[in-house]
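Researcher: Structure prediction, please.
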Amino acid sequence: MSDVSSTSSTPRRCPRVCLACHGQRLATLLETASSVRLFRFEAKGIVEEAVWSMPDEGLPGLALLLARAGVALLVCGGATCCCLRHFSRRGIAVAPWIAGEVPVVLDALRQNRLETLLAPGARQALEASRRGGTKIQRLESESS
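Model: Predicted structure follows.
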């Protein structure tokens, strides 16, 4: 199992991840996020690159913004299939139904244990979304 902090001999940009937040926590629902925070995972650590307010265009605008920023993964609270389609159309993986404070979520991503932060009662929703083709993505080097 690769660690985010491991180096790769293949030149590759560092993974970019966005968290859909409300204050210092993930928003309970994707649609209610007041901000999105962009992080880059590097060998030396996690770097926060930007913080944006939710676009006026809502989720379609957010999907476009994240795609333009090169985001590989959006981590959020509750999200339905109709919410997630905007991101899948742009090639952005989504890890829905996650709960927690930003530092805890980032640490879980770094350790590839994001599934330990599933919101209470969310396992059934996650299984349903997996059947629909969405899954929690491991943040690993693609060269491994």
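Model: Residues 59-68 form the longest helix (10 residues).
Researcher: Thanks, that helps.
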